[in-house]
Specification:
Elements (H helix, E strand, L loop, with lengths): L1 H24 L9 H19 L14 H5 L7 H16 L5 H25 L4 H7 L1 H13 L2 H7 L7 H15 L6 H16 L20 H16 L6 H26 L10 H16 L8 H5 L3 H15 L9 H23 L10
Helix pairs in contact: 2-4, 2-13, 2-15, 2-16, 4-11, 4-13, 5-9, 6-7, 9-10, 9-11, 10-11, 11-13, 12-13, 15-16
Length: 370
């Protein structure tokens, strides 16, 4: 009888230990992913969609006195792409410290190049404005688009075939510069180059109309002018193990947003620069840096939430969302309703997630979104 109890006790102990081990391994942390960063990625890509869908834009609501709704949905959302650059720089920290870093950088660059070329081809072949398709026909419309792209080769190289694809060549150039600057573990060259490029980008961009600014024949949003400083900030957060409390991080982000508003107001007040004319300002970068610090300070934010699970689709959503902006865009002029201004970006996001999910499940198409 005693032997029976011992056998039963041993069996029960084994089962309990087995259950505990299963419980512990049911939801392992995904290697290379941080829940809070995935959570913030979703917010950031939705902010990009808000910029491109232009809720409450001026030509639909000309009678509004102060452009507060339009401004709220545009300028503060500019943190998104700098945030993406910083996240890329953060995860590149370990890559650039590896012995085979140049092989890894080459693979990284090749992947971005494939995305740029593939989506440029798709956006060239897919009509961007359906009413024009009815007027001109597919062949004539596509030929006209190709002619327009070839007429500005530098524009094509630095922006691709669609305006939002500038992110990819800017990231490629920034990563290459960062990898060159941090050889031997040195960070000062990267900081110096990043600051110089950023200052040039500001003075040749939003600050070009000020006494210290100058005009350049291209957009300083493109290329490494903003990507390099954001990549460097993310890289430094990784290599220097930068930490702060969530409250401190939010204060940094709030300070950046206030600075961005102040810059925008001053440029409008004293130099008549439109409120919505800025791709990035000093405050934009600070806002994005604060958000990344917040994500690193609260790594479990959004864990097991729907937003975290959608974070892995961010690159695909970013790449394909303009398909739906173009497809649904003409409806904006049919439904001049306030509710449509909010539904439009939401529909674009949901449709982009759906398409990205479908493409990600096809082995031969997965490279388009991942």
């Amino acid at each position: 009888m005693r032997d029976g109890r011992l056998v039963f006790s041993a069996s029960l102990t084994y089962r309990l230990n087995n259950l505990r081990s299963k419980k512990l391994t049911m939801t392992p942390a995904r290697p290379g992913r941080i829940a809070s960063i995935d959570f913030c990625r979703v917010i950031a890509v939705f902010a990009v969609i808000m910029i491109h869908t232009k809720p409450f834009m001026r030509d639909l609501f000309p009678s509004a006195g102060w452009r507060l709704p339009e401004y709220i949905f545009n300028q503060p959302a500019r943190f998104a792409v700098p945030f993406f650059f910083m996240v890329a720089g953060y995860f590149l920290g370990k890559t650039l410290a590896a012995k085979d870093r140049w092989a890894k950088v080459a693979r990284y660059e090749r992947r971005l190049l494939v995305l740029l070329v593939a989506w440029s081809i798709l956006y060239t072949l897919i009509p961007s404005f359906w009413p024009h398709l009815q007027q001109m026909g597919y062949q004539q419309l596509t030929f006209a688009k190709i002619q327009q792209l070839l007429a500005a080769p530098l524009h094509l190289i630095f922006q691709g075939a669609k305006v939002h694809l500038w992110f990819l060549p800017a990231l490629m150039l920034g990563v290459l510069l960062l990898a060159l600057c941090v050889q031997g573990g040195r960070t000062l060259p990267a900081v110096v180059v990043a600051v110089l490029l950023f200052v040039f980008g500001l003075l040749g961009g939003s600050y070009s109309v000020t006494p210290i600014g100058f005009h350049v024949p291209f957009s300083t949003r493109d290329g490494p002018f903003v990507s390099m400083i954001c990549l460097t900030i993310g890289y430094l957060f990784q290599t220097k193990k930068t930490v702060c409390s969530p409250v401190q991080a939010l204060l940094v982000s709030a300070a950046g947003l206030l600075l961005q508003v102040l810059e925008t107001w001053m440029l409008w007040k004293y130099f008549e620069v439109p409120w919505l004319a800025h791709d990035f300002l000093i405050g934009t970068v600070l806002t994005a840096a604060g958000l990344l610090l917040f994500a690193l300070a609260a790594p479990n934010l959004g864990r097991r939430s729907k937003l975290e699970s959608l974070g892995k689709y961010t690159l695909g959503v970013y790449a394909c969302h303009y398909l739906f902006v173009d497809a649904l865009g003409p409806l904006t002029y049919l439904f001049e309703l306030h509710i449509w201004q909010l539904l439009f970006p939401l529909l674009v996001y949901l449709l982009s997630v759906a398409l990205t999910g479908v493409l990600a499940r096809q082995p031969w198409l997965k490279a388009l979104v991942a």
